[in-house]
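Ticket #4471: structure export looks truncated?
Reporter: QA, pipeline team
Priority: medium

Steps to reproduce: submit the single chain below to the structure queue and open the exported record.
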Amino acid sequence: MQSEGFHPNEVTYSMLLKACAINRDIHKGTQIHDEILRVGLSGKHAVLDTALVDMYAKCGNLWKAQEVFDELIARDLISWAVLLAGYVHHGKGVEALERYKRMKVEGLSPNAFIYAVILKACGITREIYKGKHIHDEIISHQLLGSDIVLGTALIDMYSKCGLPNKAHGVLEELPFRNLVSWNSLIGGYAHLCEIDEAFHCFQQMQHEGIFPNEVTFISMLHACRHSGLENEGELVYVNMKTTYGIKPNLRHHIYMIDILSHAGHFEKAMAAIEEMQTSDYLPIWSSILGACLKLGNLRVGRLAFEHAISLDKSNAAAYSCMEKIYITAGMYEEAQKIRDMMANNMLF
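Actual output as written to the record:
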């Protein structure tokens, strides 16, 4: 384009920055920023300035995003939304809430999108009182209505703050629900191991014609694992594959292996590992090692230990677990060998 005598304008640069944000290409984005400064377009076009903030935020350089934002001559709701979303996307809930407070001091009133972003920040920080205050504001401004994104953000906030019943109440008030809103609620119940409520929502969701996805089953398996319901967990896992045609991902495999091994079904756990594309994942073998220590399975414990240290020979937890397995079995010489092996491997 430039070789043919055409020069980019603010629209062109904005589109290029958007592409950099999508691809997380901060190197190219920084080059474009330098060019924008060189041609004198910086600070003259709100869309372009906001695109710069967005690019840096999505690429993870929040410090630079904040610097560009602070240099803006005029900050509108769009630029604030981009900055706040950047902090929330990277788990910086406290920082997002601080900037939100500053936005209000500057006299700007949040819209539905900003409320949704700040509710996510409240979920990250577990700021339930702030979240409730935001909820009250949303009601007073009559913003909820049919806004599924805002409604889902409320459900997610209450779920993450440990109030799934409150989240359920919000869901019931929504004129329509989608998979994301149901997943947020099911995840909230699952996190608190309220397995009956999680299963009830799982069934009610499908009764409304909404079918589960990978995220739904991660929550269901989590609930089964932490409730000690190995039979239910295995049934969920099998149904996910056969009834719903969902191929297990890494997290599904980890939960299922964890459920089976801690229930003493080591052969099934090993069979589940064989289904995976690769077993070179330390948390799997760490989980099995923990189950072997709990249940006193020396044979599988040795196998899990060998895999664990082959992946990370300096993994202190694996050595400690194997040593305890040997001590429990009365094999003190073997336990000493593990201590010696750990001391040797930790030196290099």
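Status: closed, not a bug. The export was complete when the record was re-opened. Leaving a note from the reviewer for reference: Residues 159 and 329 are 43 Å apart (CA to CA).
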